[in-house]
Amino acid sequence: MKNLVNILRSCLPTPVKTALKPLYFALRNSSIGRSFRYYNDYHYDAWRFSSHAASDQAIKTQVNLRSLIILNAHCIEKGLSHHNPRTRFGQQHIVDVLKLLAEYSSRFGQDQITAIGFDTLAAYIRFHQQHGIQLESLEASISKIAACNQNNKVCSKGMGGAYEITRARIYSDGKIDIVPFLNSRHSIRHFDSHRVDQELIRQAVSMAITTPSVCNRQAWKARVFHDDSAKNAILAIQNGNRGFTELIDTVLIVTCDLDCFMSVAERNQPWIDGGMFSMTLLLALHSVGLGACCLNWCVEKDRDMQLRKLIRLPESEVVIMIIAVGHIPEKLMVARSARKPLEEVLFFEG
Questions:
Q1: Is pLDDT of 22 > 80?
Q2: What's the whole-model pTM score?
Q3: What is the β-pairing status of strands 290-295 and 250-257?
């Protein structure tokens, strides 16, 4: 439909286009037009997901393979973290990790991802040794795969498995009064003129990567735009920043990589994981003294394509949200943003 409209625009004389414009908008906003737009945009999203999500039958990219290794290794890690793990648990995950590590090593060499896989398998072996069980065949398989590529980029240990921590440590590190912190975070739409030091952004993102994600796949990315021309072009497309556009120092675009997901069952997972990461990032920005405002990215296909083209976004990534960032002035106005009563949110069932 969009292509047809563009063709007509280029071919028809201006008086005809002017006369047809009311008809076009009437059709676009009719029930038939809205249904077509729903179908067209959902098809756009579905095509992108199916083109990039991995499965056992279709491992397309290095990121697909990395994510499958992380997924299966994390299943083993979760088993090791249980109160009383049974011996020889997770046999299929062991087989899958070995197969994936062999393929990854042969295609891409060995790096941090293979280190996580090998360390997780080593922790699995140690657990069984503590129970008097030797897993010689597993040790032999690991040695065989590791020997395939001696150019290891990451040789450190302790990247996979599980480790012990005490309740006292959790209580000690987590004992902060978080209520004032949460109540003091606002959507900031008034920034001062100081430029944002990118080290502060780095600190905030370093904190945000502790966010939980499905099977620890961490599909999110934070793309930083500090240059005025790129930043202003992005804000013009977003179109929800009127009244404070010129005050925004830095724009962050949070994305999720669809290559990290596995099947149609995970079709909505990018928005869940990306949304959780975005919230942690907002809190982290607040903790380093920066103001931030979420800029909505619920848009139709055409605007999404416009932004993708502008920032040259990889086809496998989807935009979760845009965040405006800057330093907070001495005094400013913020929206009250009244909250629902607790009884409209909290329900104790059963």
A1: no
A2: 0.87
A3: unpaired
Q: What is the mean pLDDT of the chain?
A: 91
8-state DSSP, 72: H
Q: Is 294 helix (H, G, I), strand (E, B) or coil?
A: strand
**Cα 60 to chain center, whole Å?**
19
Would you state the pLDDT for residue 60? 74
Q: How many CB atoms lie within 10 A of CB 14?
A: 7
> What per-residue confidence (pLDDT) applies to 85?
95
Helices (H), 239-268: none
> Long-range pairs for 294-297 at CB < 8 Å and ≥24 separation?
294/187, 294/321, 294/322, 294/323, 295/235, 295/238, 295/240, 295/241, 295/321, 295/322, 295/323, 295/324, 296/238, 296/240, 296/321, 296/322, 297/238, 297/321, 297/322
Three-class secondary structure of residue 317 per DSSP: strand
- pLDDT value of residue 1: 52
Query: Residues, the chain, total?
Result: 350
Mean pLDDT within 333-346:
95
**Cα(226)–Cα(230) distance, integer angstroms:** 8
The ranges assigned to domains in the chain are 2-52, 62-146, 181-327
Domain covering 181-327 assigned CATH 3.90.1640.10 in the classification? no
Q: For residue range 235-287, list pLDDT tens digits in order.
A: 999 989 999 999 999 999 999 999 999 988 999 999 999 999 999 999 999 99
